[in-house]
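Why does residue order matter? Because the sequence determines the fold. Keep that principle in mind as you read this record.
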Amino acid sequence: MNRLLNLGLLIAFQFCYLEWPNHSMFVFEAEYDIFSKTESLFNNLMHPIILLGLIIQLLLLLGFVLKYFNKKINNIAVLLLSILVLFIFLIGVLDWNYKIITSTTPFLILAGIYFTKLRKIKKI
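Structure:
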């Protein structure tokens, strides 16, 4: 079940909506844009939020693909990505942007399920 949650979190993160003046895109579109501009790829990847997001996504992907993956690393990855999505959600709430709010809600629900499951496992 944990592997399916990793996949769900990864897919839900890809559909988080970003919007700023004169631009808007989903995370998967932003990632495509970053990797398609090869002349500035190194500079794009050195931005801390982009680098952190990509590393965390790779960790979630490894958590999905590998049967035995370090649970502490997986928990940290989900926590850090949840913080990033919470910032995006907060921006949506402060701006009353329903697109941002509704696009981040599935990820936050899945993260809540993940941590609820983790808490139940720790109690046993």
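The chain has six helices and two strands.
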